Amino acid sequence: MKKIFYISFFIFIAAAIQAQHLPIYSQYYFNDFPVNPAVAGSREWFDARTNHRYQWWGFTDAPRTFTVSVHGPNKKLNMGFGGYIFTDNVGPTRRTGMQLAYAYHLKLSKEVKLSLALSGGLLQYMVDGSKIILREQGDKVISGGLQWALVPDAKFAFYLYHKNWYLGGVIPQLMRNRLYFFDNQQISDSRLEHHYTLHGGYTFVLDDDFKIEPIAIVKYVKNIPVQFDITARAIYKDQVWLGGAFRRMDAWSMMIGYTYKNNLSIGYAHDFTTSNIRNYSAGTHELMLGIRFITPRSNSRAMMQ
Hints:
The protein contains 2 helices and 17 strands. With about 300 residues, the protein is mostly beta strands. The strands form 2 sheets. The protein has a 14-stranded antiparallel barrel. It has a two-stranded antiparallel sheet with strand order 1-7. The longest helix is centred in the N-terminal third of the chain and has 9 residues, at about 10-15. The chain is globular.
C-alpha cells in the first residue's frame, strides 16, 4: 500500500496529536448540552445555542468546528429532551454528526437532582482526496474524490446538580464502531474509541451583584495524555462575565460574554496557543450565541449559564 507523502504539514501533525479527542470548546460551560446530554431538562426553559470555532487563525485548512443545539424540559414527567448537529473540519478530513437525547431526572433531596441520559445518532467521517498530495499519482488506495464512512453512535451521561454547583460525566462513542471507507473493505483498523469526560463547577455568590464561578473539565482516552481545562469567570448582575482558562498542552484563553434581558446571550473566547504553532498562527477565535425561550414563571428563576 502506498503511503501519503504530504498533507498540509502542520495541520497533519497537529491533527494527529488530537486525533482521538472529540471537538474542543473553550466555552464548554456556555454550550454544555453537546458535551453532556444529561443537561437536557435541568433548567426550566428551552435553550438554543450555536458555536463557531476557528482554530489556529491564519493556517490554511486549520480546524473549524460548528455546532447547533436545542434542549429543554418536561417538568411534569421529570424528563428532558434535546438534539444537536455538528461538523468538525481538519485539513482534508471532516467529521459530521447529529444526536437526539433523552434524560430522566431523579430528586435526591430538596435541592439536589440527578439526571441520567442516553443519546444516539449518526456520525459521518469524510476524506477529501483532492486535498492530499500523494507520492505517486493514480494511487488506487486514496482517490482524488471524496471517501466517507457512516456509522451509528451513542452516548451515556449523568449530571448531578444543585442551584450553586454541578458535576457531570460522559462516555461518548459507546458503540466503538469501525470505519470502512470502501465498499469492498473487509478489515479496518480505524475504530471509534471510548472517551471519558468529567466536568463540574461551583458558583460563589459574593453579594447581590457579583459571582465567581470556577469550572473544570477532564478528558481521557486510551493511549492519549489526559487533557484538562481549568476555567474561572467573574459574573456581574447575571449579565456580563469575564473569564480566563488554561488547557493543558494546548492554550490559555480569555473570554467575555453578555446576556440581554435574560434571553439573548453572546460569548467570545480567544485562545493563545502555547505550542510551537503560536509562531505561525494568530490564535483561535470562538463565538457562541444563545437564545432562551423563557416563560414568565421561569424567568424569575433563570440564572446565567
